[in-house]
Batch of 3 targets.
Target 1
Amino acid sequence: MKILRSSMLSMFLLAAAVAQQAPFAKPNVPVSSHDRVYAADQTSNTVDVIDPSSNKSLGVIKLGDPVPAALAPLYKGALLVHGLGYSPDSQTLAVVSIASNSVTLIDPATNKVKGTVYVGRSPHEAFFTPDGKELWVSVRGENYISVIDPAQMKEVRRIEVANGPGMTMFGPDGKYAFVCSSFSPEIDVIDVKSYQVLNKLTQGSPFCPNIAVTPENDEVWLTLKDSGKTQVIDAKPPFATKYTFETGQITNHVNFANNSAGKFAYVTIGGTNEVKVFRRGVNPPELVATIPVGQLPHGLWPSGDGSRVYVALENGGAVVAIDTASNKVIATIPIGQTAQALVYVPNAVPQGAGTDNLVPLGEAANSAKFDLVSASQDLPKARASATVNSLGALDLVEVAVANLTPKSQFKLCLAESDHAPFGKVECLATIKTNVEGSGIAQAIGPLKAVANTPQAAGTPLARRYLVVADQNDTSKIVLKPGGAKQQ
């Protein structure tokens, strides 16, 4: 009898520990071919579509063209595809494009665009209220939340908040909305019913790119990209900060997964190419795992049952799947270029194959990835990840640096050699580091020589190497090729 009671108690505890997926607090939905993982590709202006049951890419939804076509005066497509959200019934995907000031609504079952709503300058992220009746868009280039009626596909009101709202997320009960800022050290708490700002809280540093509310509706986690920290506040009045703790340089996104082992938060750390896992419910949160995932992890989201967490690699050209029981990567899935936000949508395709209107990656699959290591005795821990993405006639290079001199400027350059004296140096862009000594820079040009790609006529281009140099003296190289070989 004792064994029976013990067994029943264990089963009860197991069921209690497996919580519901945020942000809609739905019952657990086991991984199946009806689910979809979406990643927003900022460079190729596409949305990746992945079947998590097979961990295979099904193709992409093309919303626009890459540069230089996207810079034409008559261009009508989406530009800088970046943010993602989805409705509580899983039947509408919202895609935010920063440079075209637009939110595109897509039917996941058919991958067909339902319509496009234009908002203010440089929107960043959008998410549906838990009742599905409204879509709130954080207009980061201005100082308000644009409230959209998805049925009418038009903006119906604006809610003024701190300058540069980065993201809005709701508690599962739909009572409060939490808005972090990318430009101001302020968190705004909004009453969803009245649209009134109830409270203004101190944000640990000015740049927050991501915010999430726990499935239990007890905590709000926000990442501080400029200071390498994560802040946790109480999800109930008076919304006090519970703790702020170090997570790492280029702290990007946060989300949650619960299982029989407990309640956990997963945080992407771009400066070290890792995902850190923290046990929730203890003060401060306890680091329980550090998972190497690949270059510049950005967006992440749990499966409907919390058994997996999917992570978009901004410089890695892939999505990785993490098993939350073992905290190990179980799949790597090639995707488009410069992935930003990622969402996992349970039961996105209730029936059918769900592959209509998808196209192959095409040119977006053409990229070269490599690492840079310290070339300076003064900065022995300096490092960077880099990728060169083909845009057709042109290419885009993105580099994410870490452990450089804080609040300083450096130059991203091309050099004739990968070792001293490096030869002729031509510079492409300026890198500005934050208080943690990290930063991200991009440049566009005919950069295929970095990847040693032959010209169309068959004559190889002269090989050149990405380096990072001192701002005032470009003969002083601080980062050089190393680690993963340039290819």
Target 2
Amino acid sequence: MADEQKPEAAGGGQEKPVVPQAAKPVAAAPAAPAKPAGPTPQPWDSEMVTRLKARFGAAIREASTYLGQNYLVVDPASILEICGVLCDEEQFNMLADLTAADYPKKPERFEVIYQLYSFPRNERLRVKAPTAEKIASVVDIWKAANWLEREAYDMFGVIFEGHPDLRRILLPEEWQGFPLRKDHHILQQDDQWVRENLGIESGQ
């Protein structure tokens, strides 16, 4: 039987080579929208602020409100007098909290922060006092400051002058350094204390 003839491809029996098409340029992703500006502190004016500024002058460095929270920034040298007036005359009779913040690059490295509450006024107030390292104790104004100042001393090393018993409250007395300072290496200190006092290697 004769071989069957296969039909030849059109155009002389040869397929045309496929020419690759140039890749289409990828459109650049649209730029992310700019973040909206966040809230900023606003000047705080009130009758109490007017009284305090009239009495203490430049010792009231700032009176502002932020997200509905009123605060004062005061000269640390006047903290005892200002807190005394806030407690006795302005009726902020409760020290709800006292802590500190560490800003190593600032001349006044620490900021001692007092969270006050007035039961008669049903009002809160934050007082901030920048200091290099020492500030007067307010234990004689609010007894609760006793333990809170000891904690701030224990964690930050802030000295509260006039405190009746300023010593560590969370860490052992032989602990070296202050854990909440930005330059404190907590794991290294833990290794050293555990080795020296427990005679073992730390599990950190």
Target 3
Amino acid sequence: MARKISWGVISVAKIGVEKVLPGMQGSALCSIDAIGSRDLGRAKQWAAKLGIKNAYGSYDEMLADPSIEAVYNPLPNELHVPLSIKALEAGKHVLCEKPISMDAEEAAQLAAASKRTGKIAAEAFMVRHHPQWKRAREIVRSGEIGRAQAIQTFFSYRLLDATNIRNIPPGGGGLYDIGCYAIVTARYIFEAEPTRVVATFDWDPSFKTDRLGGALVEFPGGRHLTFTIGTQTTPHQRVTIAGENGRVEVLIPFNAPIDRPTRIYVDNGQDLFGTGSRFEEFPICDQYGLQGDAFSTAILEGKPLEFGIDDAVKQMRVIDATFRSARSGNWEEI
């Protein structure tokens, strides 16, 4: 059995301590050995709760630990690139939360740092590691539903807390937080980069962040993604992939549960009643653990990730164009 990679985490962000780190602790190739926070007390509190052996009262202290090989960065979005570059320069590989940066130019700076230091950097889109998404792409590739033509995504939650980081500029808002999933999964399924986008957003007058948005994203060959996202809307998520001869629905596409199987729905389009349909079920798994193992495997084997830092730069170009369109009201080239 391969050895485990020694991981450290910078910050005690909720996504990290409640979802990502527990998932990685249950994985085959990840050992979570250190946690750093600007508040030593909080670092010690979470270290004790999660069984992490080392707690540090600053990010620099954690990055100076020579035993740590890789760092997970779930800091606020505007701190992703500065701290990830610092980690790379400290000799650590970096798995950074999405969105990896505030814009494509900043993401390119991280890509350059990764190449300069020879350390791996990647964006933490855990969904691409879940079996349900791999199977959805397999079905599309097989031609079972004919040529995939359109993807429709809805993703929403209701969050009115003004102190929550998701509602605080400059890194808050729906596109950065959840619209990015609609974009990345469409790029994953179509296996192509979009060419242009037109979008519309509603901005919260108090928070100054986008709270309801929608976009039409055009891909080569006349294919497109349409998505709606909301941060003050009833919680719901669903993805439909429509082809010439059928469709695939990913029923819980993003927050896949870790305590029960997941399912996708496949329909051959025979009629509107689902006569030619079926469900495919996937065993219980933790997509955060699978993501950690994929990253650790790349370190251990010295092989590139399927979706490395250059993919993250392409992802940010789409987000940049979507923001531009929401402000201009026009189609924007990517």
